[in-house]
Amino acid sequence: MVTNWQIKSFSEFTVTELYQLLRLRSEVFVVEQQCVFLDMDNKDQHCLHLLGWQNDLLAASTRLVPPGISYNEMSIGRVVSSQQVRGTGIGRQLMEESIDACYRQWGKSPIRIGAQQYLEKFYQSLGFETDGEPYIEDGIPHVEMLKNI
User: Fold this and answer.
1) Is there a domain that residue 91 lies in?
2) What is the pTM of this model?
């Protein structure tokens, strides 16, 4: 299935798109991962959002974070894909699109992420290197990773 990628600022969302995004993030981060946390952290309004649509399904999304919001470097966060499309390679596509979008938006400079530790090898395959010791965030082991240029 073809994925239609689009980038939107928070203010460009329709009510329906915002609902679909927050529902997808809740389905995965809260229900599937059984992690009670406040997803709405007041960063979304300052970020760009990469959305991957397959017909009417929001299949995948990331939050593209400008430098100075989460880290000194630009960042990619809230990486999420729908259970309905997992195993199709959409996670790799999502990250490649996100990296390219960050470079287009803020220039070719390092990208820092806070990755769930079980995905460390996946992110390494995209050029990220572990940068620091593992830590626990919302009950889930994470590790900071940096993609240098």
Assistant:
1) yes
2) 0.94
Tokens of 52: 């991957």
Structure tokens at 14: 């329709």
What is d(CA 139, CA 132) in angstroms, rounded to the nearest whole number?
Answer: 18
What is the Cα–Cα distance from 144 to 49, expressed in whole angstroms?
21
User: Does residue 144 lie within any of the structural domains?
Assistant: no
Question: 4 with 52: CB under 8 angstroms?
Answer: yes
Per residue in 18-67, pLDDT (tens digit) is 999 999 999 999 888 888 887 889 999 999 999 999 999 999 999 999 99
Q: How many domains does the chain have?
A: 1
Show the domain range for 90: 4-108
Spatial neighbors of 24 by CB under 8 A, at least 6 apart, are 58, 61, 80, 82
Tokens 């809740």 belong to 26
Please state, rounded to an integer, the average pLDDT across all residues of the chain. Answer: 95
- Write out the H or E segment, with its range, that includes residue 25: helix 15-25
Q: Round to the nearest angstrom and report the end-to-end CA distance of the chain.
A: 32
